[in-house]
Amino acid sequence: MLVFATSDKGGTGRTVTSSNIVYRRALQGSDVCYLDFDFGAPTAGAIFGIHTVQRGTKDGGLHRYIQGAIDEPQRIDVWAESERTSLCGRPSGAGELVLLPGDEGGSEFVVDDESVDRCVDLLVQLNDSYDIVLMDLSAGRSFATELALRVTARDELRSIPTRWLVFHRWTRQHVIAAHGLALGVGGILDLGKGFGHDHDELQSAIRFVRTVVVNPSSEQLAGLRAAQITWLRQMDRDLNQLAGNLGIGRLVTLGSVPLDPVLQWREQLITDSDTMLREIANPATVESFEALAKGLTDDWITI
Amino acid sequence: MRVRPRLHLLEIWRGVATTSYNDNKWTWGGRFESNSVSDAQQLLCLMFPATEISSFGLGNPDRTEEATLEALANLGGAQKIPLLIVQVLHEYLDRYTADDGTPLFSGGSHFLSRDPDSPPTQAQLELDVVESFAASVTLMLATISFARSLQRSVKREEHLSSLRQLEERAGRRLTAAMVGLLRSFTINTFEETSRMGQALLRSVNQAGLPERRVVHDLRHELRDVIAGLRDEIQIGSGQSKGGDLDSPNLLFECGWSWGVIRDAERVPFFDLSQQRDGVASDEPYLYFTMVALDAIADLFTERTRRASLLDEDQQRLARALQIRWDLTQEYWAVLADFGPAQWPLEDIPWRATDEIESDYLSVLVAGVAMRNLVEVRADDLDLSRMGTLLSELANRGRITRRPTEDDQALQKLHDPGFQLPLVVSGEAIGPHLIWPVQDYAAVLLKRSARLATMLKDTDLYSDVLTLMNSLWDHLDLRRMKDGNTKTLWDQPSLAYSTLTRTYDQPSWQMTVRVVESLVLAAGLVANEPLRSDTLYNLTRDMISEAEHLLDQEFLIGADNAGPSMRRTIQSVNANLQRAKTILSKRPASAHALVSSVLLELDTLAAAREDSTWAR
Ligand SMILES: Nc1ncnc2c1ncn2[C@@H]1O[C@H](COP(=O)(O)OP(=O)(O)OP(=O)(O)O)[C@@H](O)[C@H]1O
Ligand SMILES: [Mg+2]
Question: N or C: which end of chain A has fewer CB within 10 A?
Answer without folding.
Answer: N
